[in-house]
Amino acid sequence: MPASIVLILAAGRGGRFLTSGGSTHKLAALLNGKPVLEHVLEAVETANLRWHLVCPEGGTCGMGESIALGVGATLQAPGWLILPADLPLIQPSSLQRVAAELEDNSIVVPHYQHYSGHPVGFRQEHRAELLALSGDTGAKEIVRRARLRGEAKDILLSDYGITHDIDTLADLQVAQRLTDPSRA
């Protein structure tokens, strides 16, 4: 089976980041001299996974619409890993693990400690449900229904990066402290 496609969701407006004191869109904000989005793209490329960037001009009405657009642009994929573009600390090994687990499971949800994270993986049998998403309602309800049927697999990862998104300037500052090369 060919590898699933990572849908990198980069269509948000980043309003919370700006109101928290950020001077640019959060995906363009610099972390160790590179934009947040570039860190995410590098992780996906290092994981050697195919990807599709969901970034329509003018943005979307939310995560649900972004997921539907990404799935619609990659209809023949055997599955999708839904990855918000504001997770610059994510490790390539985490992406690979979710992709590998998706080969044997309908839905894969990664967790760090007691927190669910991203990417959440969905196989092709969920295509219609993903395409029906709209607005800011993501795929949580799809996962919930699959869990009730015993079709969702939860996996534990030791990667803080699957949960640490950049929503505010303080989030970016934490990421900077965690990745500061001078602290190594």
Task: Walk me through this protein's architecture.
A hairpin with a 2-residue loop joins strand 6 (107-112) and strand 7 (115-116). The chain contains seven helices and nine strands, in the order E-H-E-E-H-E-H-E-H-E-E-E-H-H-E-H. The chain has one domain (5-183): Spore Coat Polysaccharide Biosynthesis Protein SpsA, Chain A, CATH 3.90.550. It is globular, with a radius of gyration of 16 Å. With 184 residues, the protein is of the alpha/beta class. The termini are far apart. The model has no long low-confidence stretch (mean pLDDT 92). It has helices at residues 15-19, 36-46, 63-73, 92-102, 127-131, 140-148, 169-179; strands at residues 5-9, 30-31, 34-35, 50-54, 79-84, 107-112, 115-116, 120-123, 152-157. Strands 1, 4, 5, 6, 7, 8 and 9 form a seven-stranded mixed beta sheet that branches. Strands 2-3 form a two-stranded antiparallel ribbon.
- Structural class, by secondary structure, is alpha/beta
End-to-end Cα distance, whole Å, is 40 Å
Order of helices and strands: EHEEHEHEHEEEHHEH
Number of helices, counting only DSSP H or I runs of 4 residues or more: 7
Q: Main beta sheet: strand number and arrangement?
A: 7 strands, mixed
**Total individual domains:** 1
CATH class: Alpha Beta
The proportion of strand residues reads: 15-25%
- Average pLDDT, all residues: 92
Q: Examine the coordinates and then state which fold CATH places here, giving the name of the CATH topology.
A: Spore Coat Polysaccharide Biosynthesis Protein SpsA, Chain A
Number of strands: 9
> What Rg do the Cα atoms give?
16 Å
CATH architecture: Alpha-Beta Complex
Anisotropy-based shape: globular
CATH superfamily: Spore Coat Polysaccharide Biosynthesis Protein SpsA, Chain A
User: Which ranges are low-confidence, i.e. pLDDT below 50, for 5 or more consecutive residues?
Assistant: none
Helix content: 25-40%
